[in-house]
Automatic annotation (TrEMBL):
Protein known as: Transposase IS110-like N-terminal domain-containing protein
Species whose genome carries this gene: Arthrobacter alpinus
Top-level taxonomic group: Bacteria
One biological process term in Gene Ontology: DNA transposition
Pfam families membership: DEDD_Tnp_IS110
Residues in Transposase IS110-like N-terminal domain copies: 12-160
């Protein structure tokens, strides 16, 4: 098996953030840091970073190790792979491994590059920022948001029912049938203003809860 240091002449470690990425390029043979730089995460910034890496590597074989290739480094990973560059994912270092060496973006970028030098090329982590994995992540995030919103709506509606005389028993948690009934409420012109306001305030919350329940339920696919 071939290790990274034998196949690539240079390794770049990238410490990724929302606004900037910090890069450190190392010589694979010696592990010596040749240079570090920070560029914006915008498309022009990523293009400048790619040019910087290629200039520093010259004619050698380059491997880019992105810390967080499926999160903050997703855009960078996508752009570099699209340009035909070799990219792998690396995990952030444990806190215990940082003791005695401080904490900075440049230090973390160097650590990302150093972490793969002795690793077999075949065992490098493949970035998975796109495709079905990313689609599933988006789906799960959306479902979690809807679940939280549905819970918040149900609690808000329960608070309204328990503090307002609307003819609904609020001693127990509201059932789905009660919520659907509240969602169907309409204000009537003959109601006094107080009841119109109370019912009008309850109805939108009641309408959103079953809607969110239905949408979240539709995403309970067997393959998830």
């Amino acid at each position: 098996m071939t290790i990274v240091a034998n196949q690539f002449t240079h390794v770049v470690g990238v410490d990724t953030h929302a606004k900037t990425h910090t890069y450190a390029i190392l010589s694979s043979a010696t592990g010596q840091v040749q240079d570090t730089a920070t560029f914006p995460t915008s498309p022009p910034g990523i293009a400048r970073a790619a040019d910087w890496m290629n200039r520093r590597a010259g004619e050698g074989q380059l491997l880019v190790c992105v810390e967080g290739a499926s999160s903050y480094g997703a855009g960078l990973t996508r752009a570099l792979r699209g340009a035909g560059m070799s990219v792998c994912d690396v995990r952030p270092p444990r806190r215990t491994s940082r003791r005695g060496r401080g904490k900075s973006d440049a230090i973390d970028a160097v650590a990302a590059a150093q972490s793969v030098l002795g690793i077999e090329v075949a065992t490098l982590l493949e970035p998975r920022a796109d495709g079905e994995r990313n689609a599933l992540r988006i789906l799960l995030d959306a479902r979690r948001l809807m679940d939280r919103q549905r819970t918040a709506d149900r609690l808000a509606l329960t608070a309204i029912i328990r503090t307002t005389a609307l003819g609904v028993d609020g001693r127990q948690a509201l059932t789905d049938a009660q919520i659907r009934a509240i969602a169907a409420w309409r204000t009537r012109s003959r109601d006094d203003k107080g009841r119109q306001c109370r019912a009008g305030g309850s109805t939108p919350v009641g309408q959103s809860s079953p809607c969110l329940y239905h949408r979240a339920g539709n995403q309970q696919d067997p393959h998830i």
